[in-house]
TrEMBL record:
This is Cupin. Residues 35-100 form the Cupin type-2 domain. Pfam families: Cupin_2 (PF07883). PANTHER family: PUTATIVE (AFU_ORTHOLOGUE AFUA_8G07350)-RELATED (PTHR36440).
């Protein structure tokens, strides 16, 4: 189980996340993280959260967001709110590291998803964009379908693709949760 104060890093996307409040501490109400993003760093892919709201408060630097198809740049003191079901992505828009706080409501499986994706990247098991191979990704996404989805593909098409790809991925030995070489205990993550 992730604990407040723990930090995970994604060397591929340039993101570093420190957990300030965890799902366990808030009874699943929210997760609060502080994120830094290196120059040229960004979230791995544009995505949406069907049931979660994200609130980004910029602390340092300039962050470029694409929210619902609209580009905007936010700086220190700015707040960007992404409502459930809204396609979004972010990237460092400057030449210095950026820092922001992000509150995710409700927590759902957000923590274990981040630990999995960052762990795969940290252990060299993703491509240049920060995503694992398609069969491993299908296993992960089938587990986290209520957490995160592709923005421009209907949910039923995604479910159909995952229904085909995830069983193949499991046959190949992939699991929906991944622990980096150094990280929280596996049985706690799946909880």
């Amino acid at each position: 189980m992730i604990r407040a104060g723990e930090t995970i890093e994604n060397p591929v996307t340039g993101e570093r996340v420190t957990f300030l409040k965890t799902s366990a501490e808030t009874d699943g109400e929210l997760v609060l993280i502080e994120t830094t993003v290196a120059p040229d760093g960004s979230v791995a892919a544009e995505h949406l959260h069907p049931y979660q709201c994200e609130r980004f408060e910029i602390l340092e630097g300039e962050v470029e967001f694409k929210v619902g198809g609209r580009l905007l740049t936010a700086g220190p003191g700015d707040v960007v709110v992404v409502e459930p079901g809204t396609a979004h992505r972010f990237r460092n828009a400057g030449e210095e590291e950026v820092r922001f706080r992000c509150e995710v409501r409700p927590a759902l499986t957000f923590e274990s998803f981040l630990v999995t994706m960052f762990g795969l990247a940290a252990d060299g098991k993703t491509g240049k964009g920060g995503l694992p191979n398609p069969f491993h990704l299908a296993v992960i996404m089938a587990e986290h379908f209520d957490l995160v989805r592709l923005p421009h593909v209907p949910a039923w098409v995604q479910r159909a693709g995952l229904a085909l790809g995830a069983p193949v991925g499991r046959l190949l030995g992939y699991e929906p949760f991944y622990l980096p070489r150094r990280g929280p205990e596996r049985q706690d993550l799946a909880a």
